Amino acid sequence: MMARRVGRMSPFNITALALGMAFLYLPIVILVIYSFNASRLVTVWGGWSLRWYHEFLNDRAMLDAAWMSLRVAAVSATIATLLGTLAAVGLVRGERFRGRTLFSGMLYAPLVMPEVISGLSLLLLFVALNAERGFWTVTIAHTTLTMCFVTVVVQSRLASLDRSLEEAAMDLGCDPVQAFVRVTLPLILPAIAAGWMLAFTLSLDDVVIASFTTGPGSATLPIRIYSEVRLGVKPEINAICTMVIALIAVLIVIASLASKLSGARGESAAPL
Amino acid sequence: MSTRRIFARPARYAAIAPYLWMVLFFLVPFGFVLKISLSQTAIAQPPYVPVFDFSEGWSAINAAFAQLSFDNFRLLASDSLYISSYLRSVVVAVTSTLILLLIGYPIAYGMARLPQRWQPIAMMLVIVPFWTSFLIRIYAWINILQHDGLLNKILLTLHLVSSPVVWLSTDTAMYLGIVYSYLPFMILPLYATLSKMDPSLLEAASDLGSSPRQAFWLVTFPLSLPGVGAGALLCFIPIIGEFVIPDLLAGSGSMMIGQTLWLEFFTNKDWPVAAAAAVALLVLLVPPLLLYDRLQRGTLEGGR
């Protein structure tokens, strides 16, 4: 029966798929190729060169922004993973408790909330608290957004786990915390890792929420890129974007290798 | 059963920290948005007159209620700038969702008909761009669409146009950017419904004499409607509040509500009006969110 399905790709199906994939990937490929262009003009191909990478590595302000972004992404992803995993455990294993609807509502809402609203509301909170804006305010803002994504990823893995494993561990004398740490945690580790990476890339990507919550002198890389892009295309930006893409590609490869090594099944290997 | 109940208690304790975090950094800030949307604009730092002063106790709060100002909302409802940006947000979101559906459906359908072992790879290929930075993907298009960019170069070389076409700062560029960014959101739910469809249904349809085309419109498409609804709402909802794409790709002529909010906040420093625009945007999002929630419940119940 499977064999009958295989032969049923019509030319239309193949064209749609090929065009769709080309549409998704071509712009990124073009961007990467042009980052190696020696010429300042985007249309003129001046030969392969690392000139724009040199330019970036000598651009103090850009480097500062990149360093700030990496720190924010690493710290916020770590806190978000911790909180998001705890939230997922509470939602999936906590059965019913008071305030559960509000809790899950608060965790789902940021997924669809326009970034302008999340950014504005957090800024108003920070102003009211008289908090100095900079690294920590952006980190808190990103943690709040990304922990919701972590919760969703971990929650779906946790919900698909066979509970009899935990029950067996407890029948054999583990208390609930031991059962969780020794049995459940290793099984959901690939999902937790995927959640961390998703949080990291989302934080590295955000321009709107960071613009609202950061203070003077602590721009993140996307904020810098954004203000440069508004002024027009600069080859240096191509180089920076290529490096970010490379970083994310490396993370994705590590994640898929890790989930293969951990012996998890195919469904958890998908990064979402 | 009893083991489960023993497990539930520490699991609930686990939820305390994230619960408090979300109350403090998600729920409470909304209180501030609401509060400031009801206050007066002032030339000060921060630029608004506080409505409540909690330090003075409940009597002061009660007194303050009398002074609540709905001026900002009245301004939103009367000024044509706000009305047109509200309308534009809806028009852009509806149009983009329709285009996404037209482009996304054939791709998802093609994916669902791929040989089984190729399907996870195709799904990965759709998800990966979602992981690459959103800003970078928009920037990639600016590279292509700019005056002396690749697209104009190709069009000129092929003699399809005689002089460079202006692509940037147009609605075409904006729609292109939106469709490009949100395509994975449309494809994935569509693919999820289409790939779960029982192939024997199509065999039955063809045994009963329908052509492949008839079978598609009579069997496949109606059965994929939950996926169509989910994909459409997953795109529609975030597009309504979109800021970066219209700001970078569309012209400066008319703005979406997210841009208006940004302008009021950063350029005009009118925080109360920005907060009121945020509340208005939220109100706009409630109906599609409720619809999505109902649809998801319906699918879950129908699946059982």
CATH architecture of the largest domain in chain A: Orthogonal Bundle
The main sheet of chain A comes to: none
Largest interface: A-B, 99 and 95 residues
pLDDT under 50 segments of chain A (min length 5)? Answer: 1-6, 264-272
Q: What's the gyration radius of chain B in Å?
A: 25 Å
Question: What shape does the CA trace of chain A take?
Answer: globular
* CATH superfamily (homologous) name of the largest domain in chain A: MetI-like
Structural features, described:
The complex is a heterodimer of chains A (272) and B (304). Chain A has 272 residues and is mainly alpha-helical. Chain A has helices spanning 2-6, 11-35, 51-57, 60-93, 100-112, 115-128, 135-159, 163-171, 176-205, 208-213, 221-230, 235-261, 266-269. Chain A has two domains: 10-49, no CATH class; 60-269, MetI-like (MetI-like fold), CATH 1.10.3720. Chain A contains 13 helices and no strands. Chain B has 304 residues and is an all-alpha fold. Chain B has a single domain (72-303), classed as MetI-like fold (Orthogonal Bundle). Helix content of chain B is 76%, strand content 0%. Chain B starts with a helix and ends with a helix. The relative contact order of chain B is 0.12. Chains A and B meet through helix 1, helix 2, helix 4, helix 5 and helix 6 of A and helix 1, helix 2, helix 5, helix 6 and helix 7 of B.
List keywords for this structure.
heterodimer, A: 272 residues, mainly alpha, MetI-like fold, 2 domains, disordered C terminus, B: 304 residues, globular
Task: Describe the secondary-structure layout.
The complex is a heterodimer of chains A (272) and B (304).
Chain A: H1 2-6, H2 11-35, H3 51-57, H4 60-93, H5 100-112, H6 115-128, H7 135-159, H8 163-171, H9 176-205, H10 208-213, H11 221-230, H12 235-261, H13 266-269
Helix pairs in contact in A: 2-12, 3-12, 4-7, 4-9, 4-11, 5-7, 7-9, 8-9, 9-12
Chain B: H1 2-14, H2 16-37, H3 57-66, H4 71-78, H5 80-112, H6 119-131, H7 134-145, H8 150-157, H9 171-196, H10 199-207, H11 212-223, H12 225-240, H13 244-249, H14 257-267, H15 271-303
Helix pairs in contact in B: 2-15, 4-5, 4-15, 5-9, 5-12, 5-14, 6-9, 7-9, 9-12, 10-11, 12-15, 14-15
